[in-house]
Amino acid sequence: MDIKKVLNEVTKEIEQSSSQQELQNVKVAYLGKKGKITELLKSLKDLSLEEKKSSGSKLNLLRIEVDNLIKDKFNDLKIEEINSKLKNEYLDISFPPPNSIASKAHPISKTFDEVITIFGSMGYSVAEGPDIETDFFNFSALNIPENHPAREMQDTFYIDDKDKEGKPYVLRTHTSPVQIRTLLNQKPPVKIIAPGRTYRCDSDSTHSPMFHQVEGLFINENANMGDLKGTLIEFCKQFFNVQNLKVRFRPSYFPFTEPSAEMDIAYEIVDNKIQLGQGDRWLEILGCGMVNPIVLENCNVDTNIYQGFAFGVGLDRITMLKYGLTDIRSFFSGNLNWIASNGFTIGDF
Ligand code: DAH
User: Fold this and answer.
1) What is the predicted pLDDT for the residue at 104?
2) ∠ CA(86), CA(89), CA(91), 5° rounding?
3) Residue of 61, 110, 118, 245 with fewest CB within 10 Å of its CB?
4) Cβ-contact 106, 345 below 8 angstroms
């Protein structure tokens, strides 16, 4: 029995295998049920006891060695296959896009930019908070206790991991938690906006599971409802580019403001197109109110001295209104043709 010869032969075949399938065939040809090495092992039974002992252990070593060689080769081939896949499917994301969509900015990015510019000119600075929030910041500090119906109003995405209080983390359902983060970090007066992503389990032509809001918070010694109205009306005039803007404030309810209101802007349909500013139809665009003293106390703000207002605006909503877009989902479809016709170039900023 020429073990060396078999070893040489199989080693060569293993080396020459250029795919996992080829290697598998070699494995079957030598170690399979009817494989060469298996047959040799089977033939041991016809040998004398002496021969059985010496040939048996040699054959066994051969089987183990071949098995190891095949395993190593399998690993090499796997790595080679991954590398070649990476090479073939390589995508250079820094490569310039086709000319038609070169440098186009998303309408939402444009809105972010405008919102920051407009409120910036009124003296607001930008604050930020994380997308993954604790129950405390997203709900309880904002006077939305557990089992409060307001929690049901916002279809929350919960995360398996629990925070220090043993409550599941959430994807923030609004930008309002940034009010709390700011007030715990900064002594009044406070004048911030917090634009960012928000999440709710909801999807249709006017709702997306990920959407955008801008929060506003102004705390000082005498900020009042009149200041709030003036601020929001001025923002809308500038954002929608309409000087003669008809608006109304309706009483509403939010746990974190008292009193609370919603602001609507008037519109009419002319030639099948929505025209903002006048008319007898109303579109709700934001929620607002005087910050509930309970919220200020939760943040250790002295309510004998300080008061203020807050507001939350749906950025996708006002972007759709401004540009006459009807389906929020088109913002997030990643369709290059869409961005080519609805995106903005540097000159638009
Ligand atoms: N957080 C509210 C929501 O997402 C919006 C809102 C309403 C924010 C009133 C405010 C506010 O700051 O005062 O539905």
Assistant:
1) 85
2) 105
3) 61
4) no
State both tokens at 108: 């939402």
Question: What residue ranges of the chain have pLDDT lower than 50?
Answer: none
- Domain positions in the chain are 3-88, 107-348
CA torsion, points 144, 149, 150, 156, in degrees to nearest 10? Answer: 100
pLDDT of 100 reads 54
Ligand 1 centroid – CA 250 distance (Å): 14
Report whether 300 contacts 184 (CB < 8 A).
Answer: yes
pLDDT at 2: 82
Q: Give the model's pLDDT for residue 205.
A: 87
At a CB cut-off of 8 Å and minimum separation 6, what does 41 contact?
59, 60, 63
CA 195 vs CA 90, 250, 299: distances in Å:
35, 24, 21
Q: Give the distance (Å) from ligand 1 centre to CA of residue 166.
A: 26
How far is Cα 27 from Cα 35, in angstroms, rounded to an integer? 8
The domain over range 107-348 is classified in CATH as 3.30.930.10: yes
pLDDT score for 347 = 76
Supply the pLDDT for residue 149: 77
Residues in the ligand 1 pocket, defined by CB under 6 Å: 174, 176, 215, 254, 257, 287-289, 310-312
Atom in ligand 1 nearest the alpha carbon of residue 216: 12
d(CA 237, CA 24): 72
Q: Which residue has the least CA distance to atom 13 on ligand 1?
A: 288
Pairing of strands 190-199, 125-126: parallel
For ligand 1, atom 3, name the residue with the nearest CA. 174
pLDDT at 346: 75
> pLDDT tens, 24-69?
999 999 999 999 999 999 999 998 988 888 889 999 999 999 999 9
**Bridge partners (DSSP) listed for residue 260:** 252, 289
